[in-house]
Amino acid sequence: MENVLRPVIVLGGSVVLTLFVGWLTDRLLRRADARHPETPLWGMLRRCGVPLQVTLAAALLRGSFREAGVALLRDHQAGLGRALTLVLIGASAWLVVRVAMAVVESTYARYAAATRDPARVRRVRTQVTLIQRVVIAVVGVVAVAAMLLTFPPMRAVGTSMLASAGVLGIVAGVAAQSTLGNLFAGLQIAFGDMVRIGDTVVVDGEWGTVEEITLTFLAVRTWDERRITMPVSYFTSKPFENWSRGGVQMTGTVYLHLDHSAPVPAIRDQLREILRDCPAWDGRDWSLTVTDTTPSSIQLRAVVTAKDADDLWTVRCAVREELVAWLYAHHRYALPRVVTATAPDSPPHPAPPLLPRTRTDA
Fold first, then answer.
1. Fewest CB atoms within 10 A around its CB: which of 47, 177, 221, 244?
2. Helix (H, G, I), strand (E, B), or coil: what is residue 264?
3. H or E stretch including 208?
4. What is the C-alpha end-to-end distance of the chain, expressed in Å?
């Protein structure tokens, strides 16, 4: 009877204790979340329930499986102990990452709820994203290193590895020069406030919105739903346009080429009416001026404003379309024309009268 009850009590007790601690922790976090709804940390920490239970179960089984008295476990004691140790290290790393992510995300959520400036929110969001990736990378490397050190051969070669660390470091630095450059460029972008997630940028002639920033690359979503992936080092070494820098309000222009007879004052009044009926116009400013003239046409420049780049594109397209339609309907003569008729022959000029010759006597 003891051979049956002992493993059941040892192994079953570990599982029951793990489930009870997980249930109790979840209940306490749920109660704290209900009492403090303004703090999202308690609700986010509930995501750590599974890694917490795995870590606790691995720790309990690692310390008690020898006491179960099962011959099969005793025969494979070394391998089972190493396997449980690896599971414990991996689960602990998983738990640390989940807790760190919950703390960082709750901090960002509280900041976003208390800040009305969207530029600052995007900046913090970019920094939070890169902090999460750095934490995951660091914890992952430490966990893998700890797993490798559980094997005796890895500990035996540790001395020789440390002795050659200088040479390996130089070789690795040369080989990973591009990767390390992108890594430091990503940190510089995040904390230097050069570009943020959600910013409208123009890169290599392509207009789009920054959708993702990692430690090595940056993704820009264009207006036609394409994704341009570029190394982050590009944004620290080459100039680019950031339309969201210093505010999202923008000013745009619409150019029209018309005939010299175009009624500029009437066009200016019509532009005012078009902007009044355009919901994308923010009402800050507008103007219409003649900016250039050629032998066959004049150039009109309409200046409009909008609250962001998307609305500015809408306003410019609406002004261009409605002004051309209005001119075609009411002032068709003002549209540019191309003369294709043959010029009439000019009448022959009369020959100049001949001057009378004067005769001089010798």
1. 177
2. helix
3. strand 206-213
4. 165
Same domain? For 99 and 198 the reply is no
In a domain, 123, yes or no: no
Q: What is the pTM of this model?
A: 0.47
Structurally, the chain folds into a number of domains equal to 3
Strand order in the sheet with 200-203: 227-231, 217-222, 206-213, 200-203, 241-242
Assess whether 235 and 330 both reside in one domain.
no
Other CB atoms within a 10 A radius of the CB of residue 183 amount to: 18
Q: Are residues 45 and 96 in the same domain?
A: yes
Cα separation, 219 vs 213, whole angstroms: 7
pLDDT tens digit sequence for 253-264 = 999 999 888 999
Q: Residues 148-198: pLDDT tens digits?
A: 777 776 665 544 444 444 444 544 444 444 555 556 666 666 666 677 788
User: Are 196 and 126 a contacting pair, CB within 8 Å?
Assistant: yes
Give the C-alpha separation, 285 to 31, whole Å: 53
User: What's the CATH number where 322 sits?
Assistant: 3.30.70.100
| CA separation for the pair 287, 305 (Å, rounded) | 10
Residue 13 clears pLDDT 80, i.e. is over it: no
Same domain, 284 and 311: yes
Q: How confident is the model at residue 200 (pLDDT cuts 50, 70, 90)?
A: confident
Structure-derived torsion over alpha carbons of residues 45, 51, 57, 61, reported in degrees to the nearest 10: -140
Residues 52 and 94 in one domain: yes
φ/ψ region of 344 (left if φ > 0, alpha if ψ in -120 to 50, else beta) reads beta
Q: Report yes or no on 161 lying in a domain.
A: no
Question: What own/partner pairs with CB < 8 Å and gap ≥ 24 does 282-291 have?
Answer: 282/249, 282/306, 282/307, 282/311, 284/249, 285/251, 288/264, 290/264, 291/255
Look at residues 252, 250, 237, 249 and name the one whose alpha carbon lies nearest to residue 194.
237
Domain that holds residue 275: 250-334
- 118-149 vs 177-192: helix crossing angle, rounded to 10: 140
Residue 259 exposed, middle or buried by CB count within 10 Å (0-12, 13-18, 19+): middle
